[in-house]
Design brief:
Elements: H1 2-14, E1 18-20, H2 22-30, E2 36-39, H3 45-58, E3 61-64, H4 68-75, E4 82-85, H5 88-107
Parallel strand pairs: 2-3
Antiparallel strand pairs: 1-4, 2-4
Helix pairs in contact: 1-5, 2-3
Amino acid sequence: MRDKVFSYLGFAARTRNLVTGYNTCIMMMEKRKVKLLILTKDLAENTVKKMLQQCNKSNVEYRIFGSSDELSQITGKTGKGIFGITDQHFAEIICKEIDRIQSEKEGF
């Protein structure tokens, strides 16, 4: 299942429907371009808090998923822990897959 999310993220990066980094994601959320924000599990607590405030302010869905190393390698963006999906279709698919993975973990 994780492979599907990684594949979709990689495809979003190749089709330029992915923005990365703190400042870029905030700027794009203010412009209402980001449809889904993915934060990695190993982000600093204060960074997560600030990004969640911005998500609430901009009415953007978010998910906490994976590690910076995993997602950076998949997307080709080294050292990043914040990923914004700008395409609505990609956002819906990735969101569903992450929810499915997290619900399966709770079931065990």
